[in-house]
Amino acid sequence: MVLSDMRKGDKAEIIKINADKALKDRLNSFGVMRGEVLHVKGCSLGRKTMEIEVGSTHIALRADEADKIEIRQINS
Fold it and tell me: Sheet of 69-74: strands edge to edge?
């Protein structure tokens, strides 16, 4: 499952990031890395972007970036 499959209110653990080094480094700088738990805060109309929270950091991701993040959904 990838992050772009998630809906507002869902929680997930990051399993793997399938991206080039530049994007991985940028995501890591925001705390988006393997093993972290994230919370989907919202999605834009048409699902072109989504807002996630990792720790206390809120991040907006494009759909193509979210497609590169493999996750395991956490039931809450």
Answer: 57-62, 49-54, 37-43, 11-17, 69-74
